[in-house]
Amino acid sequence: MTEEFNQRKANQQVRLLHQAIYAGFSEIENMSLWHETRTDHRALPPADANWQPVKVGDQWSGRDDYYWLRFKVQVHASKESSTVLRLDLGRTGEGNNSGFEGLLFVDGKPRQAVDSNHEEVFLGPEYDGQTVDLQLMMWTGLEGGGPKKIQHYTFTTASRGPERRTVRLAYRYLSNIVNLIPELSEDNPLRYSYIRLVKRAFNGFFWATATPAATATAAVNALALIKAFIARHQNEKLNFSIDAIGQTHIDVAWLWTYRHTREKARRSFATALRLMDRYPDFKFFYSTPQVHKFIEQDDPAMFKQIQARAAEGRWEPDGGTWLEPDTNLPSGEALVRQFLYGTRYFEEKFHHKQTVMWLPDVFGYSYALPQIMRGFGIDRFVTIKISWNDTNRMPHDLFMWTGLDGSRVLTQFLTTVERTEDYSQAKVWNYTYNGEISPHVALGSYHEFKDKDKSNVLLMPYGFGDGGGGPTKEMIENLHVIDELPGLPHAKNKTVADFFKDLDETVKANQEPLPEWNGELYLEFHRGTYTSQARTKRHNRKLELALRRAEILATTAYVEHGTPYPKAAFDRAWEILLRN
């Protein structure tokens, strides 16, 4: 007879433990709201802004509208406990490409994104004893590609309280363990060891009579049980590892304008910088020089922080190209310029040599790319998009891609599964570059990886994209727990460069040649997209040819007549064209 386990009841216990984190929180008072009226709303509200009182339960709405929420908080914090703000002010839309997004300013300085993925703000000992002034710039968002509509939101939660670090940690372990149990087979003895552990841990919580002090004591006892369990089963880690890459994928133009892209990047980058403050092992990857330049122009202070983190090796500016471009329509010259301008910018601003072509989300890959990449000293390529094929399945996820002239680049297809996909029933297609961190995703991504005989290290980017704000503290903490729990792989925050170093060592140790793909990487899913917006595509090609002719004429004029070469003007023109 198998050990009885009620998954529904265990999930209920986890939810109660999560609620206990916020026991005793008090509502934030004296909030006020201003409907933004300026064209340029990046600066803080003016002195004559017309603030209106607002409270929990009130509503706000709009389409591509901006509001500012203002309030003050008295901070009581120490090394052991921060003051925590909990802000549920609206729901970010499906796929994180519509709906509410916000950027919080503390005493006039941008701190982090606030959205439905980032509802908590931690104010630590640097603010202890202070009354801080908080102002949140809130964008109503758009409709995510459907018919135009007004978005409606409710101020659901605006509260503050102590961090309750022990209860949070117990919740983090137990939520991951409860999610792990159904991933383990019924023939795996570890499954039943975990069931007994969960029962013993939750037996210490008496929710009907729970006080914050009693819950904290039960959390301490639960953590002691969990730590002892991990020590007893420390040799039962799985023999593969996850190199987790904190990142956010932001389409430079999709269902929004460039203005929105600049704002999405600023929110996401602010959050990544705060996570680096809180988690010393956290690293962040971002591929796009154009977006870095947006930040350089819009928020020079933030850009300096990014440069400092890059110098530490914690902010990784890599990816090869000016942005993540389509590679089928541009001319060969335009593709070369993507690499020229991209590699040059990262070298000038970050002293960082490009090592990888990072293109998770474009509609197929030209046969010419390996040759162009090798010309810029780039010999690694990463994508997930070919997994979206609707007819044929690519035979490998790890291989050498050979181009027109015989140039070869090491290619890694990501196999990160969605949080809710059932990989046990059928092959999961449509992997994601917006990964979440959970036992299901860790095990499912390895299950789907087709080249286990060649490598036992997985590349797993994580973080909400397209305005979802990037990584969360929950993802980082889940990674720490997964790295400890028996029955799961080792998992660490890494850089993309770290991953390829680990992969190179693994491949060399196997002493077997990797499979080879010779030809273009054709995506079978987004058929027909190249026939849309045809006028724009035609103009792009005409501009490519016109810029080439203009450069030839300018060079001739310089050589024959000494006419100054307008390099700055050409650079500006190419950057605009490459962005498109």
Molecular structure report:
This protein is α/β, with parallel strands linked by helices and 580 residues long. The protein is built from 14 helices and 22 strands. The chain has helices spanning 7-20, 165-180, 189-202, 212-232, 258-278, 289-298, 300-312, 332-350, 369-375, 439-448, 473-484, 496-510, 534-561, 567-579, and strands at residues 26-27, 31-35, 52-54, 59-62, 66-74, 83-88, 101-106, 109-114, 120-123, 131-139, 151-154, 157-162, 241-247, 284-286, 315-317, 357-358, 380-383, 398-402, 408-413, 457-462, 490-493, 516-518.
Salient structural properties:
22 strands, Glyco_hydro_57/38_cen_sf, 5-stranded parallel sheet, glycosidase, hydrolase, single chain, Jelly Rolls, 6-stranded antiparallel sheet, Glyco_hydro_38_cen_sf, alpha/beta, Glyco_hydro/deAcase_b/a-brl
Q: Based on Cα principal axes, name the global outline.
A: globular
Cα distance, first to last residue? 63 Å
CATH architecture call of the largest domain: Alpha-Beta Barrel
- Spatial extent as radius of gyration: 26 Å
State the CATH superfamily name of the largest domain: Glycoside hydrolase 38, N terminal domain
At the third CATH level, what is the topology name of the largest domain? 7-stranded beta/alpha barrel
**Number of DSSP-assigned strands:** 22
Strand content: 15-25%
Task: Kindly give the count of domains.
Answer: 4
Show unreliable segments: none
How many individual helices? Answer: 14
Q: Within the largest sheet, what's the order of strands? A: 3-2-5-10-7-8
- The residue fraction in helices comes out at 25-40%
Strand-pairing-aware structural class: alpha/beta
Oligomer description: single chain
Give the mean pLDDT: 94
CATH level-1 class of the largest domain: Alpha Beta
Sheet with the most strands, sense and barrel status: 6 strands, antiparallel
